[in-house]
Specification:
The protein is α+β, with helices and mostly antiparallel strands and about 150 residues long. Helix content is about 15%, strand content about 20%. It binds FE2/S2 (inorganic) cluster. Belongs to the adrenodoxin/putidaredoxin family.
Length: about 150
């Protein structure tokens, strides 16, 4: 990732063990697009119409960490203090994936529980549960997300 701004909220990062509990959903077309490793351009837009931030991800990274490292406000209000720190429990790290959904890892069990509960709309992801970038990313890949989507 080319942009790295430390923020207190990004101090707690999910462990790989947390993300390894994922359950595949359907068949990913991403494996068929596999080419050599490339960076992913990530555009982060606030739902309140604020200015977008763009960064680049060069290695597989947790989307929540990518967003927080840019200084973008992933959380609103008290969620800044009360979120679960990326453990997949609170559901406050939602993003609406506008472009590049196939660049993200499969939904985890934590996300599927939120879908079942009706708290995860079509196209939304829990950013702490998504990996972006890495060797599966095709050349010129672009991901665009809206943070704090309107519920
Ligand atoms: S930060 Fe709590 S579910 Fe993602």
């Amino acid at each position: 990732m080319s942009l790295s701004i430390a923020s207190p909220a990004s101090a707690v990062r999910p462990s790989i063990a947390c993300l390894s509990r994922r359950r595949p959903v359907g068949r990913s077309s991403r494996s068929q697009m596999r080419v050599e490793a490339a960076s992913v351009k990530v555009t982060i837009t606030p739902s309140d119409g604020g200015e977008s931030i763009t960064t680049t991800v060069d290695t597989a990274s947790v989307l929540r960490t990518v967003i927080l490292d840019t200084g973008a406000q992933l959380y609103g209000g008290m969620d800044r203090l009360m979120n679960c720190g990326g453990m997949g429990n609170c559901g406050t790290c939602l993003v609406d994936v506008v472009e590049g959904a196939d660049l993200l890892s499969e939904q985890t069990e934590a996300e599927l529980r939120k879908v079942k509960a009706g708290k995860l709309k079509e196209g939304w992801r829990m950013s702490c549960q998504c990996l972006v970038g890495g060797d599966a990313a095709p050349e010129g890949a672009e991901l665009s997300v809206v943070v704090r989507p309107k519920k």
